[in-house]
């Protein structure tokens, strides 16, 4: 148990150093490497890992754009955008859940679902960027 604690403390210290040393650029390079590995290997776990990273980046961007739009709107505009976003989230989740259904079974269904989330979220970022 003591060895596990040492590993955890070491990982925490490494994370702090990583972030302090410009982890964002290293993250992008790591993401590219992970996605390249996924393309080369075709292994479901690698592909899902890549899609997870892409989704995290798209979701982070979506949240940033959403916050910026909300800050620029009056109360009525905020309510409209909030309602639009809630509706979009429900629709996206339902649509992506369907992508896992019968003809996309097994591990392909998981990849289809993850890809759907990435694509829909990236499209929503563009819609929000153009939102007036």
Structural commentary:
The chain starts with a helix and ends with a helix. Helices cover 88% and strands 0% of the residues. It has helices at residues 2-20, 23-41, 44-72, 75-98, 106-130. The model is unreliable at 1-23 (pLDDT under 50). With 132 residues, the chain is mainly alpha-helical. It has 2 domains: 1-41; 44-132, Substrate Binding Domain Of Dnak, Chain:A, Domain 2, CATH 1.20.1270.
Considering the chains and any ligands shown, give keywords for the structure.
single chain; 132 residues; mainly alpha; Substrate Binding Domain Of Dnak, Chain:A, Domain 2; 5 helices; flat; disordered N terminus
Helix percent reads: over 70%
The CATH class name of the largest domain reads Mainly Alpha
Number of domains: 2
How many β strands by DSSP?
A: 0
Number of helices: 5
The major beta sheet can be summarized as:
none
Q: pLDDT below 50 for ≥5 consecutive residues: which ranges?
A: 1-23
Order of helices and strands: HHHHH
The coarse silhouette is flat
Strand content: under 5%
Through-space gap between termini: 56 Å
The CATH topology label of the largest domain is Substrate Binding Domain Of Dnak, Chain:A, Domain 2
> For the CA atoms, what is the radius of gyration?
19 Å
What's the CATH architecture of the largest domain?
Up-down Bundle
The whole-number mean of residue pLDDT values reads 81
Structural classification:
mainly alpha
How do you describe this structure in short?
This protein has helices at about 1-20, 25-40, 45-70, 75-100, 105-130. With about 130 residues, the chain is mostly helical.
